[in-house]
Amino acid sequence: MTTARPLHAVPTTTPGDTSGTPAPEWEAPVPLGGGRVVPAFPVDAFPDWVADHVAAVADATQTPPDLAGCLALVALSTAAGGRVRVQVRPGWDEPVNLYTVVVLPPASRKSAVFKAMTRPIRAVERELVDEAKVAIEAARIAHRAAEELAGRAEKAALSADRDSRDSALEAAVNAAMEVDRTAIPIKPRLIADDATPEAVATLLADHGGRIAVLSAEGGLFATLAGRYSGTPNLDVFLKGHAGDLHLVDRQGREATAVEEPAITLGLTVQPAILDGLAANDTFRGTGLLARIMFSLPVNTVGSRLSRPPAVPDAVADAYDTRLRSLVRELADWTDPAVLPFTPDADDLMADLQDEIEPRLHPDTGSWAHLGDWGGKQAGLTARIAALLHLAHNPTTWAGAITTSTFTAAKQLTDYAAGHALAAFDRMGADPAVEAARTVLTWIKRTRPTSFTVREVFSALNRGQFRKVTDLTPALEVLEQHGHIQLAPAPDRTGPGRRPSPTYYAHPTHRAEGTP
User: Fold this and answer.
1) Which of 45, 96, 261, 371 is a Cys-bridge partner for 408, taking CB atoms 3.0 to 4.6 Å apart?
2) pLDDT tens digits, residue range 378-420?
3) 148 and 169 fall within a common domain
4) E-assigned strand segments in 321-449
5) Do 151 and 23 share a domain, yes or no?
6) What's the number of CA atoms in the CB half-sphere (13 Å) around residue 469?
7) What is residue 502's three-state secondary structure?
8) Is pTM beyond 0.90 here?
9) CATH code of residue 23
């Protein structure tokens, strides 16, 4: 976390401070929720054909590499989701589909990056549709013929006399069963856009239990929150990440069981959408946010070149060829391939688990407020390791996941952890940050030059701060961000209770005219 400290002391005494100590001179305060230093995207964690394309697209669009990098992971997940599982050790295996959300302001050229990173997948989707046209048309004709035959057989059974009724009924039943056997195939689909949960469930049932929901806008969250239905509906996205059985009810048809649903989610959203997630307890309470790999890139708007270099043809062709190959290779799989870890890679995973666990301790862990997300970091690392293994070996990917692949995956999930902390800070998931916002609101409203802890405690809601010591984490956050500075404690002059600690407020928060 970035800490703003006074540059040096100046010989002026702050009003309200009886200690006689000089007030500090200040650096600019760091905004709450935006002050955490987030790691840069580790482009070199990818194999060359992905890394080169990510870097070139970022350069050509003048966007942060985080966006193209996260969408590269999404593209790999779209290819492999529902077709591959990763086995860390016996008893622990994971699907390999990912949920990613990149947070960028408007006019960030998100759509251009989406097109560049997903173009090969959309091309394969079109190819699959073209290839299926003949089979679909043949099935349509056969289905119509079967329906007509079944209709005639049913009429014959209804009008048959007693002697021929049994044989006519048998013929009608057989004809009706033939109608079911000549069901018309569904047009192949790999990607959906801003679909409702009900539509996503139907797409899963129709397309072998997998679908990618990719959108350069954040409208999906409003849909999940109940924009159309009036009530939140997250079930299919919760099960579509974990691979849990999902029953799809469809009007006029029997419920379809999707045994191991695999949804890939790739969204870019504006910061206001992220802020809105904090106001909906359902997203956090159900664990949906814990399943998301967040990215909060540094905004490039205002520093972009007007004539950046185009993506080199060789780089784009390599990306297109390798990704298409992987999508085509896995498109017709029904039983998922299983990618195991080598014993050495499993040892590194155990080390990572030992590293994460103390952070999750509810009392002393640095991720105590982020335990739901942190508890899934090891699983996220396993999923990404499998995707990187496939990317390194798109046509001959049999074999175990090695330590080098695991190390590259950990680079990406270390990045993800830093950005998750920043995202949850912004959403108010850290109680200390949320409390700091409350205190800062009071400071900006009352504009004191200095204040005591007891003064602010007396002014704030007892529902949030039941005792004076409840303010301590909030004041520490504000001091770390440079909004306040603790004044030196005055010397004791006699017995009695020590005076309440005094803090200076940053000059930008004070009433005009005060030093």
Assistant:
1) 45
2) 999 999 999 999 999 876 777 899 999 999 999 999 999 999 9
3) yes
4) 337-340
5) no
6) 0
7) strand
8) no
9) 1.10.10.10
